[in-house]
Write a structure and sequence with these properties.
The structure is a single chain. With 358 residues, the chain is mostly helical. The protein folds into 2 domains: 2-150, no CATH class; 168-357, no CATH class. It has 15 helices and no strands. The chain has helices spanning 2-16, 18-31, 34-45, 48-74, 89-103, 105-120, 124-150, 171-179, 181-201, 210-222, 226-237, 248-272, 280-301, 308-327, 332-357. Helix 1 (2-16) packs parallel to helix 5 (89-103). The longest helix is centred in the first third of the chain and has 27 residues, at 48-74. The chain crosses the membrane at residues 12-33, 39-63, 93-115, 127-147, 182-199, 211-232, 252-271, 283-302, 322-348. Keywords: Membrane, Transmembrane, Transmembrane helix. This is ABC transporter permease.
């Protein structure tokens, strides 16, 4: 029975939120080192206000897990779980406790780190508060799940929901994060780890800035499929978009902001891991060049039904050509200019062709 609950709740919870966890990890551990995190934990242990803020964040995470379990219990394919209320109460509660511990594992792991630091500095008041709050989180989560199981009516209990109106620029990033988390996870993990690895490799030998350009080229190629995904997303959910009274520049500006948000984690990574011999302004130019080339790839792929084999062949040929240009010393300013000029030029031609066809 516990295996069934794990597959329905735990596995699906982490699959659905894989992208969110990746973003949190990239921001929290890509921008802050372990020593900086330890300093924050030490400050929280000595500040009741700061510790309360951390407890508040954990409470929001608990609400997310409760809402997810509630939705899974009401899903048509999981209605057979209503028979679980016939299981003896101690056994049933024990299973819910195990499920809740599993979905709260990121919070429990971070709390364990905080407990270790609290024990080292002998902050037993904070140690006890963290332990008590974790027990409360697990107990409340398990109790809410069991209550929902015994009261399956939708009107039995409702969690507060926050309605947020998303701007257009966030439509695809949110969709990609929530509905295609595996694609998001693989793309951003490969790109982020690659850039971080190149930055860490730079000081180990007699390298020049061409190594960073090669890392940038590979990171952009990791995002080469996004243009097709954006087109497919709009054909499925935004059929009215081509008919809106927007100029080509207004449309391009919205796509630029969308790709800027998608490319933002790479900026945090390269700034965090910037080699000591590289100026910060060069890193910014490097990131801007990658942003332009993402838009260039988008302009090439948008509204074009290219076969995957031909697209991959083109990407591979572009990588070989780009590698040759990097080896011959093409500067980052030239890469930035070509990327943005090509993106604007191809996008304008695509838009003008659509107007002519209509």
């Amino acid at each position: 029975m516990l295996t069934t609950l794990n597959r329905i709740f735990v596995v699906q919870f982490y699959n659905q939120n894989a992208g969110t966890f990746l973003v949190v990890v990239l921001i929290a551990f890509g921008f802050l080192s372990g020593n900086e995190h330890k300093a924050l934990i030490t400050a929280a242990l000595g500040s009741p206000f700061f510790l309360t803020l951390i407890f508040l964040l954990w409470s929001f995470y608990l609400l997310k897990t409760i809402a997810f379990i509630r939705d899974r219990l009401t899903a048509p394919e999981n209605l057979f779980l209503q028979t679980y209320w016939l299981i003896p109460t101690p056994t049933r509660v024990g299973m819910w406790l195990a499920v809740q511990i599993a979905v709260l594992l990121p919070v429990i792991a971070y709390a364990g780190w905080m407990l270790q630091v609290a024990a080292f500095y002998q902050r037993w008041d904070s140690f006890g508060a963290i332990m008590l709050f974790i027990f409360v989180l697990v107990g409340v989560g398990a109790g809410a799940a069991d209550y929902r199981l015994r009261h399956p009516s939708p009107s039995s209990i409702r969690l507060p929901q926050l309605a947020i109106t998303l701007p257009y620029e966030l439509f695809f990033p949110v969709y990609w994060l929530r509905h295609e988390p595996l694609s998001f996870l693989l793309t951003k993990a490969f790109s982020g780890l690659l850039l971080a690895g190149v930055c860490r490799l730079y000081p180990t030998d007699d390298y020049d800035q061409r190594l960073l350009l090669i890392g940038l080229l590979l990171a952009v190629i990791a995002h080469s499929q996004i243009g097709g995904q954006v087109s497919a997303f709009e054909r499925r959910y935004l059929l009215v978009l081509p008919n809106l009274p927007l100029s080509w520049l207004q449309r391009f500006r919205r796509y630029a902001l969308t790709y800027g948000l998608i490319w933002l984690p790479e900026l945090l990574i390269v700034i965090r891991n910037c080699p000591a011999d590289i100026r910060l302004d060069y890193v910014i130019w490097l990131w801007l060049a990658g942003w332009g080339w993402l838009l260039f790839l988008h302009s090439l792929a948008y509204k074009h039904e290219a076969l995957p084999e031909r697209w991959l062949s083109g990407v591979f040929a572009g990588f070989i050509g780009g590698l040759l240009f990097i080896m011959f010393g093409l500067p980052v300013g030239a890469w930035l200019t070509v990327g943005w000029a090509g993106a604007i030029g191809f996008w304008y031609r695509t838009f003008a062709q659509q107007v002519t066809d209509s």
